[in-house]
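Quick review question:
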């Protein structure tokens, strides 16, 4: 997926009537930045946000913001949903 397609998908996802379900899990993962992906991988493995910040060398506020962005891009509303939907995808 090109940069343009990622940007377009992100913009469209905020519009009414856009069906986020049309994107499969792998397509949604491709929307994540490298920092977001790092946070995603640790959260998926069961690390807390505080542990993520320590492992990644980031401030806790930064990890909180990255996690929020991950949840939005992956269309999940809880950590449990993230783990269930993405446990077998890397």
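Suggested answer, residue by residue:
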């Amino acid at each position: 997926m090109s940069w343009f397609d990622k940007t377009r998908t992100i913009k469209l996802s905020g519009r009414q009537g856009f069906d986020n379900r049309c994107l499969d899990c792998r397509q949604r993962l491709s929307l994540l930045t490298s920092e977001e992906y790092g946070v995603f991988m640790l959260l998926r493995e069961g690390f807390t946000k505080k542990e993520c910040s320590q492992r990644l060398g980031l401030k806790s506020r930064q990890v909180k913001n990255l996690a929020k962005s991950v949840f939005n891009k992956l269309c999940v509303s809880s950590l449990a949903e993230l783990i269930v939907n993405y446990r077998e995808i890397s």
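Why it works: The radius of gyration is 13 Å. Residues 15-22 have pLDDT under 50 and may be disordered.
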